[in-house]
TrEMBL record:
Protein family (similarity comment): Belongs to the cation transport ATPase (P-type) (TC 3.A.3) family. Type IB subfamily.
The name this protein goes by in its record: Heavy metal-(Cd/Co/Hg/Pb/Zn)-translocating P-type ATPase
Origin species: Actinacidiphila paucisporea
Protein origin, superkingdom: Bacteria
Subcellular location: Cell membrane
Amino acid sequence: ATMPPLLSAIANAGRHGVLVKSAVVMEQLGQVDAVALDKTGTLTEGTPRVTEVRPLAGAGLDAAALLRLAAAAEHASEHPLARAIVDAARARGLDIPAAGDFASTPGVGVTATVEGRTVTVGSPGRMLDAAGSRRATVVAAGLEDEGRTAVVVLVDGTTAGVLGIADRLRDEAAATVTALAELTGTGPLLVTGDNARAAARLATEVGISDIRAGLLPQDKVAAVQELAEAGRKVLVVGDGVNDAPALAAAHTGIAMGRAGSDLALETADAVVVRDELGTIPTVVRLSRAARRLVI
Ligand code: ADP
Ligand code: MG
């Protein structure tokens, strides 16, 4: 028997490295007319590196001690920033002590007990207001102006330091943004939990003009719902636990597979397995071609 068009499109998508979970999804992909893209791990490669370690006077820690405590707190997190911090500590030959009472807040950061101290690592925007450290705010803003993601480390409530983390833009990011804009008739929206400075810098590089930064997971959902209420069928592309609610709220959700969190992969309607962003416009085109044969 000849394969029904949507099934052969699924097989074809698979050959391009995209796992489309059902024929319904394969059909829906061609209907999308708006796209919301996550930044870290989606437009960027998702293998960030720690580029700066800046201890602050007051907590009495040097760079190695700061990184060691941050890595211990991050050890149980699957966030790309967490992996960057743990890798940086290992690369410097630091022992990473065991941590207890681990808790993570998507879009904010992590906290854990390390050697009897409470260590918190996360977003300057979310943590520094409470901690009220002007010095840390200035250091973080300086790093963000250079396009870094800054994370602040608090030890027993004192700002102990700031880490600068850099991630590479995917080679195919700009071309994918252009292709998606052509397919949907409108430029993609950038939705990120990261800071506005780093987001604006990256958006300029890839050709995105519509940016929402500093978003919590539920804010990403609200951005998707706003478009849906305006009658749009929104494609969301993301990789993190923080993207899962937006992937669920989307008309169609696609997760980046390689560095993606389990929750994102399970929630999404399709998964980019081969880690090439350029396959997303390809599967939209495959869907449209199959729909022409079905209808
Ligand atoms: P994005 O939307 O760009 O993928 P996230 O929502 O995952 O980013 O994270 C937003 C911000 O929250 C990060 O830039 C960082 O400041 C903070 N953050 C989230 N998770 C962690 C973590 N495990 N360690 C440190 N900071 C974190
Ligand atoms: Mg992400």
